[in-house]
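To close the section, here is one more complete example, presented without commentary so you can practise reading it yourself. The ligand is MU-OXO-diiron.
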Amino acid sequence: MNTTLKPNIDWVGYVDWNVRDFHSYETARGATYNSYLVRDQKTALIDTVKKPYAKYLMDNVSALTDLKKIDYIIANHAEPDHAGSLPFAAAWCPNATIVCTEKCKDILSSYNDTSGWKWQVVKTGDSISLGARTLTFIETPMVHWPESMFTYVPEEKLLFSMDAFGQHFASAQRFDDEVDLSVILEEAKTYYANIVMLYGKQIARVLEAASKLDIEMIAPAHGVIWRSNIDKIIAVYRKWVVCQAVPKVLVVYDSMWESTKRMGEAIVEGASQAGAEAKLLYARATGLTQIATESLDAAAFAFGSSTLNQDMMPMMAATLTYLRGLKPTGKAAFAFGSTGWGKGGAEAVDEFIKTMKMDILREPLKCKWLPDGKVLAECREAGKLLAERALKVTG
Ligand code: FEO
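Output:
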């Protein structure tokens, strides 16, 4: 496995082939926690790995250098998938100074007993000379936590971008041109949608800052390293930070005895006949991770639920709660669903989506018991409404 990014700059992280859950994010293709070793007159370790894999990290580093020779451990991000092994690294590298932002120091001090740690607090524009190479720091608040930062090596035109541009993707290969580009772009989209969609404005600012740098290689903290397709990952990020939509309609639903499902199918039919791409996503089978990913570039939604105990079905509640937190912008929606008696799922969904800052396209579309021909015709008409919005928004 080639782990060399540049002469004396190496990947020393861990490939987590088996992980399938990352705090509720379904990591279907596993993950990596990337650490990098920069050897010069002084030596720096950039980020660590998740706690259970500290020994792997230290073995990878030890294969390249004496741990006593580590002068700096750069903590770009305090989240435990990158800083979980930091206490071990700090103990096993007795001459290392921990370099991070002030906020990162606070967070690391909350998670760990840091007595005895040597610190160097940095801010945007600060740099550390390693000899022939320099580490320059750029604060990137909310990408992905408030304390986060990038580390840039100007002499190598190399950006260590932490979570940004990452993908949950386990691979024996380390570089974007060694794997299927469509797969890593798909995983980068899934990562963006599920981890940082709500921070679009902050990431747009980071893209602006990064555009001023001369970059030949982007080394994120997850997944493969970008060296041949930097223009492509930057281009899609520019679309994602504004949730730019394609002419796509999503009908997301849960159904008890198939009435709401039949309504959803008719909505998809109407949207599709009107010229939009339309997808029917069954909340209980599709999973939150995929629904969020599909939502990133969708233009218009119908959210449906049958009635359970005078409320929406539990997986619709989970789906809507998850999507509301991710704050997709510029979207439109309406609610639909079936009931047997009294107030039901459609009203509950309608009340919820009014809190999601989506344009509400119509009153809830409801039916009693099974949808008849009249209700299904109304569903097809509502599907056309979604398609008109999708085609209009996406030009
Ligand atoms: Fe990969 Fe925000 O941690």
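Once you have examined the tokens, check your reading against these statements. DSSP finds 13 helices and 22 strands in the chain. The two ends are 45 Å apart (CA to CA).
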